[in-house]
Amino acid sequence: MRVCVLYEDAVSTTVCKDIASGLADGIQLQGHDVELVDMVRESGKIVSYFDYLVLGTSAINFLGGKISSKSEAFLKQGGSVSGKRSFAFVSKKGLRQGKTLQSLMKVMESQGLYLTFSDILPNRAYAKEVGKRLVIS
């Protein structure tokens, strides 16, 4: 299957990029075709031809709970994603990671994505293990 791992980092960090590349490595070990996409640098990219979407971000401040509006804007411009199976993740940074994850899932569901799994990922190694065990069907 074709899998797209979308990520958006906060202004001065590369935490989500590291986690997303770990997820991509784990998913590739299952035999899937994986493409890594930075939602900020590649805004407007069409992702509707992928079978499964993995979307990750981090909170916009230390207190957590809120995500950048760029994720929702990317999904709106990314073609028809309604009904696609997906996985949501946030980096384990700051406070209230559960609330941040809930905000991301709300954005994804508002665009019609069908969430199959969600998680708070602390580092690349853990993300790779999650990618190895992620059920993509």
Show the helix and strand layout.
Elements: E1 2-8, H1 15-29, E2 33-38, E3 52-57, H2 70-77, E4 85-91, H3 97-110, E5 114-121, H4 124-133
Parallel strand pairs: 1-2, 1-3, 3-4, 4-5
Residue stretches low in confidence (pLDDT < 50, at least 5 long) are: none
User: What is the CATH topology?
Assistant: Rossmann fold
Strand order of the largest sheet: 2-1-3-4-5
**How many structural domains are formed by the residues?**
1
Distance between the termini: 8 Å
Q: Looking at this structure, what is the CATH superfamily?
A: Flavodoxin domain
- Helix and strand composition category: alpha/beta
Question: Would you tell me the overall average pLDDT?
Answer: 92
The gross shape turns out to be globular
Level of helix content?
25-40%
Number of helices: 4
Q: Give the tally of β-strands.
A: 5
What about the largest sheet? 5 strands, parallel
Per CATH, the class reads Alpha Beta
- If you compute it from the alpha carbons, what radius of gyration comes out, rounded to the nearest whole angstrom? 13 Å
Task: State the order of secondary-structure elements, H for helix, E for strand.
Answer: EHEEHEHEH
CATH architecture: 3-Layer(aba) Sandwich
What is this entry, summarized?
The protein is an alpha/beta fold and 137 residues long. It has helices at 15-29, 70-77, 97-110, 124-133, and strands spanning 2-8, 33-38, 52-57, 85-91, 114-121.
